[in-house]
Amino acid sequence: MVDIFLASKSPRRIKFLKEMGLKFIIEPSKIDESLYIDENLAPEEIAKKIALEKARSIIKNKKEGIIIGADTIVVLNNEILGKPRDKKDAFRMLKKLSNSTHKVITGLAIININGKTIVDSETTLVTMRKINDEEIRSYVNSKEPLDAAGAYKIQEKGYKFIKKIDGDYENVIGLPLTKFKDMFQKV
């Protein structure tokens, strides 16, 4: 049995992989994601590039194994909304997302150290209802949005802002399971 490494400390990704029955070692990547944001690339390409760099960053002295890298970004009108810096930034992001449709893109990279590397992405369209300032302030004060791309967690209190989803729900949480399973089997 070959070791599987997850280049992430995301509780959501960890939960999904455990529910799939995978045994893996958590070895979070420490890359600065902002270094890989290139305005000349499409958002899908940026998400894939960051996921690949996360996976590559933990290869080190490993002789064998499979490494999983992932990165989720929120994109509104070609602006990437990452994790907010603080409450003020979270408020700004949610105000922008209010009453609009945005993309949630997860880049996935799976590397078999002795074999192939597969990189792909999944995109889901999410429409938020109109959110008033009081609702945004209350949500931001819960601190929940401070460690989430786009400043919301659909699987927690953030669900109350969602009007419609077109695509993979798990992708919005942080790991598109169907795409991941297909990629994992190929590696």
Number of helices: 6
pLDDT averaged over residues: 94
Provide the CATH topology. Answer: Maf protein
Oligomer: single chain
| Named CATH architecture | Alpha-Beta Complex
* Shape descriptor: elongated
Q: Main β-sheet: number of strands, strand sense, barrel status?
A: 7 strands, mixed
Provide the structure class: alpha/beta
β-strand percent reads: 25-35%
Radius of gyration: 17 Å
Number of individual domains: 1
Number of strands: 7
Q: What is the name of the CATH class?
A: Alpha Beta
Distance between the termini: 14 Å
SSE arrangement, N to C: EHEHEEHEEHEHH
Low-confidence stretches: none
Estimate percent helicity. Answer: 25-40%
